[in-house]
Amino acid sequence: MDMKRDYYEDVKLFTSGVVFFWFMVLMVFLAAYPFLVKNYYVYVANYIAINIIVVIGLNILVGYTGQISLGHAGFFAIGAYGTLILMTKFHFPFLVALPVSALIAAVFGFLLGLPALRLEGPYLAIATLGFGLTITRVIGKIEFFGGRQGLHAPELVIGPWHLNTDRDFYYLLMVITVLMTVGARNLIKTRVGRAFVAIRDADIAAETMGVNLVFYKTLAFAVSAFYTGIAGGLFAFVLRFIEPELFSLFMSIMFLAMVVVGGLGSIMGSITGACLLGWLDLQLRNILSLPYIGSWLESLSKSYFSLTGVSNIQFILFGLIMVLIMLFEPLGIFGFWIRTKKYWRTWPF
Amino acid sequence: MLDFIQMIASGIAVGSSYALMGLAMVIIYKTSEVPNFAQGEMALISVFFAFMLLGHYGVPGYIAFPATLAFAAVLGFLLEFTVLRRAKNPNVLGMIVITIGLEMILLGLVSWKFGADHKDMPFPISPYESFAMGKIFVSTLEVLTLFVALVMMVTLFLFFRYSKLGMAVKATQQNKTAARLMGIRTNRIMMLTWGISSVVGCVAGLLLTPVSMEPFMMWDPMLKGFASAVLGGMTSLPGAVFGAYILGIIENLFGGYVSIEFKSVVAFAIIVLVLCVKPSGLFARHYVKKV
Predict the structure, then answer these.
(1) Which chain A residue is nearest to residue B260, measuring alpha carbons?
(2) Which chain B residues touch A280 with a CB distance below 8 Å?
(3) What is the pTM of this model?
(4) Between A62, A123, A306, which is nearest B112 by CB?
(5) How confident is the model at residue A52 (pLDDT cuts 50, 70, 90)?
(6) The domain that contains B175 carries what CATH number?
(7) B284 within some domain
(8) Distance CA B159, CA A54 (A)
(9) Is residue A149 exposed (0-12), middle (13-18) or buried (19+ Cβ within 10 Å)?
(10) What ipTM does the predicted assembly reach?
(11) Which residues of B touch A297 (CB under 8 A)?
C-alpha cells in the first residue's frame, strides 16, 4: 500500500502534499477554535489535549515498547505537584518549572524501569500499580505537598503575558501538545523508536541484533514518564487545584483504556482514543442532563437501581468499551480505520 | 513482647483473607494465564447478592450462603464463557485490559444498584466480639476467617490432589494440547476453574463484609491478594498462601512499629523489592521463554 523506497521517505514528517494540506487545515482550525465555541468547550479541549499528551507518552511505553504500566497516575502526580511546588515554593518561572518537574518524573520513570527490566506480564503490572499507589499515598501524607488539602495553582505569567482564562491557556497548551506529538512521531521513526519496536516484537532477538535492552527499556520508561510529567504540570493549571485523590488508580486505568481503545502502537490512535474517552468522561459526569437518554435513565434508576449511584454508569460504559474493543478489534479504533481504508481502496473487488 | 504477638496474630488474620484472594487469582492464572483484575468485583457482586437475599428478602442464612456460593460459581462460568473465551489471540496486556474492563462493569453495576454508602450486612457474627487467648485478644471474626481459610486450602489441596476432576485441571494447567488429546474437555475445565476461583473469592468477600460493606470494599483485598500471589510466584498455590501471610504480618508490624500512615503501601514496596531479586516471585521456577 504505502511503499517506502528509501530511508528518507520513511522518516519524512509529511508523506505527501495532501497530508501537509490537512495538517495546515487542522492547525488553522485549532487556532480559530476558541473563537468559535463557548467557554466550556475550550475547557473540554484543554482537558482532551492533556489526555492526548499522556496517552502518547503511555503509548510509547505500552504500544511501542510492549511494557505494561498501571502506574502512570503516579508520574502525572509528580509532574503536577513538581510544577506547582517549584513555582510556589522556589519561585521558578513556569517554562522552567514544567520541564524540570517532567525531568523529575523521568528520573522516577528510569528508576521504575530498572526492576521492569526483569519483569513482564502480571509481575510488571503489579509493580507499576504499586508504584502509582505509593506515590499518591506518599504525596497525600506529607505536609510539604499540601497534604490532603491539596494545592492551588498560582497565577500563570509567561514573559509579558498573564494567562488567566481557559482561552489564554488554550494556546500555550496547543503549542505544547503539537510539539509533543510531532516529537513523539519523530522519536518513533529514529533509531530509538525502531529499537523500542524491536524490543516489543522480540526482546531476545533485539538484544542479539545489538539493541541494548537495559538502555532502551529504561529509556522507554523515562520518555513515557517525561511526557506524562509535562501533561501533569499542565493539568495542574487546567484544574487550578490539585489534591492527592485525583491521581487514583482509576486515572491510570483510564489512561491505559485510552491507549487500548485508540490503538496500540499508533500516534493517531492515541489522539483518537484520548479525544473519544476524554470527551465521554466529561460528558458522563452529569449523565442525567444528557438529552433523550437522561430522563430514560432517571426512570430506569428509580425503578430498578438507585438514583444516588447513577453516575457509576460511566464505569459500566468504559468497561464495556474496553472489553468490546479487546474482543472484536484488538488494535482499537486505529485498527478499525486501517481495515476500512484497505476495504475501500480496492472497493468493488 | 505482648504487642508483638498481638500484631502477629492480627497479621495472620488479615493474611487469611489475602490468602483466599491470592488463591483465587492463582487458580485462574495457572490455567489460563489471565491475571484476573476482576476477581475482587466478582466477589463484590456475589457479596451484594447475599446482602440482597439476607437483607431485602429475609432468606435465612443457611439457604442464603449456599445460594451465594452457587451464584458465585455461575458468575464465574458465565464470565469465562461469554467474555474470556471469545478473546482473539490473547496476550497478557489484552487479558489485563479485558479483566479491568469487566471489573469496571461489575463495580459500576453494583454501585449503580446500591449507591456508594456503607451497608450493614446481617452477618451472624459481629466484628466486635472477641475473646482472650492467654493475654492476647483475638476477635471471633478473625478466628472464623482463619478457620475458613484453612478449610478452603485443605479442600482445594484435596480436590487438586485426589479427585479426578482436580487431576484434569492440573493436566490442563501443565499442557493444554496434551490434556485435550487425552480426552479432557479443556474448555469446560477453564470454565470450572473460573467457577472455583469465583467461589473462593466470594468466601473471602463474605468474611470481609462485617467490617465494611460498600462498593469499593474489595479493591484493597484484591490488590493485596494479587500482590501476595505475585510474591509467591503467581503459579504456586502454597506460594500464594505463604506470600499472603508474610504480607499480612509485615504490614501489621510495619503499622505498629514504623508508621501507621504508610501501612497499606508497604506491601507494594516489598513486592517491588522482592521482584528485583527474584523476578518470578519466591516459589516459582524462573519463567523461561521460547524464542
Answers:
(1) A141
(2) none
(3) 0.90
(4) A306
(5) very high
(6) 1.10.3470
(7) no
(8) 47
(9) exposed
(10) 0.87
(11) none
